[in-house]
Amino acid sequence: MSAHPDLTRNQALVLDRLEKAEAPLSAYALLDQLREEGLRAPLQIYRALDKLLDIGLAHRLESLNAFIACARPHCHPSGLIAFAICERCGQVSEFSDDVVSDRLADWAGREGFVPTRTIMEIRGECRACAA
Amino acid sequence: MSAHPDLTRNQALVLDRLEKAEAPLSAYALLDQLREEGLRAPLQIYRALDKLLDIGLAHRLESLNAFIACARPHCHPSGLIAFAICERCGQVSEFSDDVVSDRLADWAGREGFVPTRTIMEIRGECRACAA
DNA sequence: CAGGGCAATGTAATGCTATAACATTTGCAG
DNA sequence: CTGCAAATGTTATAGCATTACATTGCCCTG
Known about the structure:
Two copies of one chain form a homodimer.
Chain A: H1 9-20, H2 27-34, H3 42-54, E1 58-61, E2 66-69, E3 82-86, E4 92-95, H4 98-111, E5 114-125, H5 127-130
Parallel strand pairs in A: 3-5
Antiparallel strand pairs in A: 1-2, 3-4
Helix pairs in contact in A: 1-3, 2-3
The first copy, chain A, binds a DNA duplex (30 and 30 nucleotides) through residues 8-11, 26-28, 40-44, 46-48, 51, 65.
């Protein structure tokens, strides 16, 4: 089902759907897709998602209340990830930028703010859709 | 009630509560506070919030599903605003950084992505709470 | 001053997102 | 085998947001 053998059945089912999706999926959209697999309750989805987020195989898009599979599940040491979300086609691009991370870290340092998690989401239109 | 004479009653009530709050307020928290002023339905709050967001007097924190008054309502030409959210005391600091904006604009330019709105939220602990 | 147009308002109902609480099962290390 | 930790299953509930429709107030124009 997926190249991640440590996952439980529910986790693998959820990840599989996220990987096959062309746009972010909400927890309830996942649930609808997975009813035929026997899943019945939102909590089953949320628990699987929590785990996938923990281990970096999925991301949550805060401005969409939706989830995607990590674009590069094998090299996810990086700190800050930014998401560019096309509001027309739903496609999401992941990228990171050390200059941005450094700049934010500098600001935090000066303020004495201790960051635990940074959200960065750019909404707009991708090249194809903007054309 | 507030130094923004163009606002309607509902808008002014909502802004007033946001300005007096020490932490972000959800739409329903606002509604609870404003029942004594005669407001009864979530939509009354959401409509006022929409307007306040439009004209830049309030901000929405996506990762919290909550709202704050703009920290500097008089100089809000700036592009990108970042929020540092203390998860312990709820305090939110607003700041912006041209280097970060430029960097994101560069990335967008290279990708052909046309941004309409950028969300940037840093969760963590403020200086006082981290001590 | 009448009437048209527009933004804001009021109200009810509904839909989507997320978690609490509790019982049970599974997998694995000792 | 036993006992613990993690995952699961289920029901109910809490929290966030919007749709639809009727009404009101106000400004502008004729």
